[in-house]
Design brief:
- The protein is an alpha+beta fold.
- 55% of the residues lie in helices and 16% in strands.
- α2 packs across α5 and α8 packs across α9.
- The longest helix has 21 residues.
């Protein structure tokens, strides 16, 4: 089983610079940040992002999620790839390891799963002790992956082996059901995934469903149906959630006021922004940010 001190020591044994640090495995990187904005992978592939030292807050359409050392996030189809560092390590930095996973990597492991196990993962019915143990094994697999980069002769074979092991434990861990659903959505979506990536990059801009459908040479009705099935919401709803999530981050992390945040993410009307913000987060922007700051102070004081 992994030990966080050993994992941190191993990560620091690499010659690290600010941002992404490649390793001997093309899909494994160590990220170091001394600034408040955490360096994150820039890829449309799945990736796991495990916190090694310091703590991280991610702003996602599902809410604000905090990650402490030993915890990990998995990129999903609609997750913004940005993070804000909550606390630094004693060395004054933040460390994380990221492993990029292709759809083929994941599906090959899924095909080898016992049918009943796949059903339990999909239904979130695995025993809690199994998921907790699997989450610990995820970090142990990353530690082994870092270790094997020190052994060039073992690297090609062992890297692939450990990556399959890592995927297995992710599927059996606390994020397994969501991860499995993301895989199923992407496998069925294809071109929709590319459009969703385009929306993530252009959510501040104005566009219509008709324009998006034209990009894939589809009728509007077919495109909307496929997009909603793959992503779980319509394209304009996806854009709205990305806009509101980013505006929330700007107000919370960069102290922007309501007007500044709404304009920066693409809203022309502050009143419309406030209405949609309240509908998504349950309260007005100012009240929401005050509440979140209070919760954050409690978390920092507790830790």
């Amino acid at each position: 089983m992994h030990d966080m001190e050993e994992l941190c020591k191993l990560a620091r044994s690499f010659p690290l610079t600010e941002g992404e640090n490649k390793t001997g495995l093309p899909y494994l990187s160590i990220y170091l940040s001394r600034e408040k904005e955490a360096a994150m992978p820039r890829t449309d592939s799945f990736y796991i992002y495990a916190v090694i030292a310091g703590s991280l807050r991610l702003h996602t359409p599902s809410g604000i999620l905090d990650y402490m050392p030993g915890q990990y996030s998995i990129s999903k189809i609609d997750t913004p790839t940005s993070g804000h560092i909550l606390t630094f390590s004693q060395q004054g930095d933040f460390l994380a390891a990221a492993v990029e996973l292709s759809l083929h990597d994941v599906i090959s492991v899924l095909l080898d799963l016992d049918g009943s196990l796949a059903e339990q993962i999909a239904g979130s019915t695995l025993d809690d002790a199994v998921t907790r143990s699997s989450d610990r094994h995820v970090l142990a697999s990353i530690q082994r992956m870092l270790s094997v980069t020190k052994e060039p002769a073992q690297l090609p074979f062992m890297g692939k082996h450990i990556k399959r092991e890592l995927i297995f434990f992710i599927l059996c861990g606390s994020c397994g059901s969501q991860f499995l659903q993301s895989v199923a959505n992407i496998q069925q979506a294809g071109e929709i995934y590319e459009i969703n990536s385009w929306i993530k990059a252009h959510f501040r801009d104005s566009f219509t469903v008709e324009e998006l459908a034209d990009m894939r040479n589809m009728s509007v009705s077919l495109f909307h149906q496929k997009f909603k099935h793959a992503v779980g919401m319509g394209p304009l709803q996806c854009q709205k959630r990305l806009r509101l999530t980013e505006a929330r981050r700007l107000m919370l992390d960069e102290n922007r006021n309501v007007t500044e945040a709404s304009l920066e993410v693409g809203y022309e009307s502050v009143s419309q922004f406030t209405r949609e913000y309240r509908k998504m987060f349950g309260t007005k922007p100012k009240e929401d940010i005050l509440k979140l700051r209070g919760q954050l102070e409690k978390q920092v004081n507790f830790s």
